[in-house]
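INFO  loader      accepted 1 record
INFO  loader      residues=148
INFO  predictor   begin
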Amino acid sequence: MIIINLVLRISATLPRQQTQPKNWTRAGISLLELLAVICLVGILISISIGSYGGKTLDVIEQVTNQRNAQEIVSLGVYATLGGADFVIPGDKQATAAKLIGGVTGQQGMWKGKHFSLTNLRPTDLPGALTFVKFESDLLLYDPAGQQP
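INFO  predictor   done
INFO  writer      dumping tokens
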């Protein structure tokens, strides 16, 4: 008990420290707050890139199919002008497959010329043929890509 009285007397004679209220108007942010913001921004960016990436692949596939359809139609026009017998009425798939295999012109300045789609494979045809119309035994390009 004597020790407690002694400690209380000594502590009463010591000057007390003034505690100041928190300063809410400080001039910066802490490292922890900065890291939290960086993490949140990173999460939001990764989510947005993921959704953007899927759309980009779809657009690339559509443009590739349109380009392939344009090649099929343009080669079909030249082969038709050359008198090549490659059209199978009403069957775009078989007609395009003949162009991949190659056909030979029979008349005019294209007589004896070989027409073939060397850069296309038969597996490329289903996507490309959605952009091809068949009218009057002619292959026509359809930019809207509507199936018959």
